[in-house]
From TrEMBL:
Gene3D superfamilies: Hydroxylamine Oxidoreductase, Chain A, domain 1, Hydroxylamine Oxidoreductase, Chain A, domain 2. Residues 1-22 form the signal peptide. The keyword Signal applies. PANTHER family: C-TYPE POLYHEME CYTOCHROME OMCC, DISSIMILATORY SULFITE REDUCTASE SIRA. InterPro entries: Multihaem_cyt_sf, Multiheme_Cytochr_ET. Pfam families: Multi-haem_cyto. It comes from Ferrimonas sediminicola. Keywords: Signal. This is Cytochrome C.
Length: 418
């Protein structure tokens, strides 16, 4: 036997031992530093299928000093193995949630601790597909957020399908001020039956939909709805009053100018995919939902219930448009100073809590809190949200805006006479 070959054979046990040590380095180190992460990974399908840390966390890393060498995990990382789910996710609104929050003018005025610290909007709006350049810019800015994706539902490092299938996985983001879908669903008949079946009060076979049943049919990760987040759509209604109200609402959202022509902000709305902008895309999503509802109900019943919610949006839009016109009239008559940053003669509904006066603050809540609760409550089969937390609050909002407007006009007239 050649001397070189003999030496190689003698070294093989040592090489094998060295490889084993290298493979165990992540686990042995992190079992001390972050043991819960290691336990999650050990309980995962990744571990069962011999998918180790370096499969996803690519990079030359061996200590706390060089942890920056690791490649940032994105949806594309998961897509290397889960390409079909990545493709579905890429077509849906969750893939654009980072874009949508960045499109809001008020987001950029938030404290860094809220925005970059994931204590505010970006705590949920961290989902999204980003280029390497965008991710690098985030790193340079000191932020490691805004580019995560699949782990919002499939929590690291167990990445459990069962967890992501549970409605509680949606609860973290879909609750609270402007979109309390968890509260609506869990207190609706759908949610109550589902949760009673989960705790054994009802048989496990009880028919009751979870969030995923309706919005992720057969596990499809393309999550979107017919009306979109803001319940605005194109083409506009053929009903003259509703059409006029829709135009006023779109003008206050900044996507139509005074003459009703599209503005640059419409391109932002398109990019963030927060509304259906043609009949075909609306009908496609509506037809999907009718098929889902028809698993338990008749198709006629499903269509009728969805049509009722559509009609409620029409009535909500009228209340909203009346309130917008009240404030626009104050601008026009010089009673209320319109901020120079507003591109049109209308109040900007996307300024949120940064609206500069109390009457505009009422309008902000009317739009983003109460209108949202009314139409979302209707679609989630929750009468209490549709009526008391939605419609009723909007009626009171409009009354308060009208009274405040009258008070401001009287004060303005008095001041002018002095």
């Amino acid at each position: 036997m050649e001397p070189t070959m003999t030496r190689l054979l003698l070294l093989l046990p040592f090489l094998a031992s060295a490889l084993a040590v290298a493979e165990e380095t992540c686990e042995s180190c992190h079992a001390q530093i972050s043991p819960a992460i290691v336990e999650d990974w050990k309980s995962s399908k990744h571990h069962a299928n011999d998918i180790g840390c370096d499969t996803c966390h690519d990079g030359d890393h061996s200590s706390a000093e060089d942890v920056g060498n690791l490649v940032t995990i994105t949806a594309d990382t998961c897509g290397a193995c889960h390409s079909e789910r990545l493709e579905e996710f890429s077509r849906g609104k969750h893939a654009l949630s980072w874009a949508s929050v960045q499109a809001m003018p008020t987001t950029h005025a938030l404290p860094m601790a809220l925005n970059q610290g994931m204590k505010g909007c970006t705590g949920c709006h961290k989902l999204g597909l980003k280029s390497d350049e965008e991710i690098e810019a985030l790193k340079q800015a000191g932020s490691v957020f805004g580019h995560a994706s699949c782990d919002a539902c499939h929590t690291r490092h167990s990445f459990s399908v069962d967890e992501a299938r549970a409605p509680q996985a949606c609860q973290t983001c879909h609750m609270g001020f402007d979109h309390p879908q968890w509260e609506m669903w869990s207190s609706s008949k759908h949610g109550v039956r589902y949760l009673l079946a989960q705790n054994g009060t009802l048989p496990a076979s009880t028919k009751a939909p979870s969030c995923q049943t309706c919005h992720m049919v057969d596990g499809n990760h393309e999550v979107r709805t017919a009306w979109g987040f803001l319940a605005v759509r194109l083409p506009l209604s053929e009903d003259p009053q509703w059409k006029a109200d829709q135009i006023t609402l779109l003008q206050a959202l900044g996507v139509l100018d005074l003459e009703g022509n599209p503005t640059a902000r419409l391109e932002v709305v398109k990019a963030a995919d927060v509304a259906r902008l043609d009949k075909a895309s609306f009908d496609a999503e509506r037809d999907k939902m009718i098929r889902v509802c028809s698993d338990c109900h008749s198709e006629n019943f499903a269509k009728a219930e969805l049509a009722k919610a559509d009609s409620l949006i029409r009535d909500l839009d009228h209340l909203m448009a009346e309130a917008i016109r009240e404030i626009a009239a104050l601008y026009k008559d010089g009673v209320l100073k319109k901020p120079e940053t507003y591109a049109s003669p209308f109040p900007d509904l996307l300024t949120f809590h940064d609206a500069p006066s109390s009457i505009e603050q009422i309008l902000f809540e009317m739009h983003l809190k109460h209108r949202m609760r009314a139409f979302q409550g209707a679609f989630h089969a929750n009468p209490d949200y549709a009526l008391w937390y939605g419609w009723s609050e909007m009626v009171r909002d409009l009354q308060e805006i009208r009274e405040k407007a009258e008070e401001m006009r009287r004060a303005h007239t008095t001041q002018a006479k002095r």
